[in-house]
Amino acid sequence: MAITSIPSDGLAFGRPLRLAGTVTNIGQGVWTDAQVYLSIDPNPAISKGSLDAFAANSEGFGSTVNDLGLFDEIGRLTPGTRSNWHLVVPFDRLGITAAGVYQVGATLLAGTSGGRDTIADSRVGMMIPYLPDDMTRPTPTSIVTMIPVTGPVVRRPDGVFIDDRLATLVSSGGQLRNLLDFAEQAPPASLELVVDPALRQAVAAMANGYVVQSLDQLAQGVDQRDGAGEEAAAVWLNDLELLRQRQHVSLLPWGNPASVSLADAGLPSVVDAAVVSTQRYASAHAFDPSVTDWPGNGSTTRRALAVSRLAGTVVHVVSQESLPGLNESDPDAYPPDHVVIDTRPGPLTAVVTRSDIGGRRFGSTLSALDFRQAMVAEATVRSLTHTRRSTSVIAAPFRWDPGDNASKVDLEAGYSYPTVAAASMSSLLERVPRPYVGPIRLFSRQPLLSTDMLAAMKRLRDYGRVYTDLLTDRREASVAFDQQLATAGSSVWRREPKRGAALTFKLSRQMADRIAKVTVTGPAFVAMSSNTGLFPLTISNGLDVAVTVKIAVHPLNRALKIGPIEPQRLDPGQSRDIEVESRANGSGLTQVRARLSTITNRSFGPPFSFNIRATQIGLAIWIALGVGLAGLLISAGRRIYKRARGEGFKTRAESTA
Hints:
CATH class of the largest domain: Alpha Beta
Low-confidence stretches: 617-622, 649-657
CATH topology of the largest domain: TIM Barrel
Structural class: alpha/beta
Radius of gyration: 40 Å
Number of helices: 17
């Protein structure tokens, strides 16, 4: 059974209560003579404890109004069929008098092949407030409503989508479509929408036409296909833009990183990349520059909070379930709306969200109508029990689907109820927070990032930083790489570890292949005949973009000194020969290694090794050689002179005779 309609402005004295809903026979047998009756508990909830008790009651409640004409005759229901029901019960048959929150609902009685009894075959309940006309209106409760807008963005670096899930999510009946339908029903300035910019960018790409190809199809050579969500994406994106004009919209770090896993693995640079990517996106698209750190459903650790703060997030959202030190002994006490937490970088302020609303667990399938009634119920109870205004932070769970009927639920009436006052996050943070003393721990059962995913991410970080630093004009490439690195750290890969690791390893290999196209080579052997000399090196750029590199030359023997080498800029496809100056302080053979690095001193590529032989002849040896040669020349000259004066020049024959 389900309730689809209940008065949006609560119970009113003298006005009949009108309920409507549906009943579905999900069994195997036929229901006969089915009837729906109103059930109501005449004792109102006026405290948190009694409101919680309503939600815990699964065995039925109150009494059934079975007056003739006040129940609905459904009749026969075959398996799998659904029927509508409608109840109208006069106010004086409700048996209520006092202000508070009442539990009302419907009970189904039906006959089967085994007969008919008075045991309910199905029941459904909902909460509704009542404020007598003659009572003084209580101080309303400030309600901060936070709605995360995220989705699985699974794309290759070239923009091709790995699957078409987003098309389903933004189309009619999809979770993201229902979420915007829900938000469109709220009055202005009543919601805090927290959007993943990676999702918005992906939907914008879909709206301009996109293609889909799975990793298996890529490996098998199957052609890409056109995506099915172009039109739905355009409508969804336009509706999100219209909501920006009515509600406050802030941004998550890019891809909503799995900050707990990243902090534990020593990868704060991935969180840094996610935050800086969002800051750039916010600046380019006129969003609030304050980045909101909201890990999945507020489940986090102290270390993760510290990493996010150092990365530059401004607002931190933490679930009360991650703060066990907030446990109150008073069952009627609500947790504080925000606290100050000590971390290694210093204290930070965190907004405290709750996992329930009006005593009901806020699950991913809570309907929009249930949301409205639970929100008003909680606000009413808090208003009746607090003389000063209190604040409730209501946070929808990630991937919340308010249902296909979200567009039909009157949220404006809920936020306009006398006990409700919509409030903003900024107004909440203006007040002094309560200090929190105690541990901060995970409560969610969601898996952490896999070891393969973390290993792939480290490779991508290392290769990507080298590649972007290598480029002469690296601004555009750095922006793209920060987004790629942030995407690799996305929370989505906690549920899809193999796909995430495969995509990230593939991207890191592409980065490594690009780096390998920039090389340094030279001669295999260099001989120096003096204490100084030049030797050649060749630097080659096989990329289609300009690069700027440094060349570091290191001899194993420190007696060989290498002169300074200026950074070299190479155009696409260019090779350049340079002459390197060297000076030897002795003679001998030594190995020399030349290696490239970026201008930020990140070494890359294999070193090029070669040998240099330095042959150094001392000054004394040169003098001795010079004196000996001079003596030899003088002696030879004297002999020639004597022979020329004493005998004259004769032929060989004359001399013999």
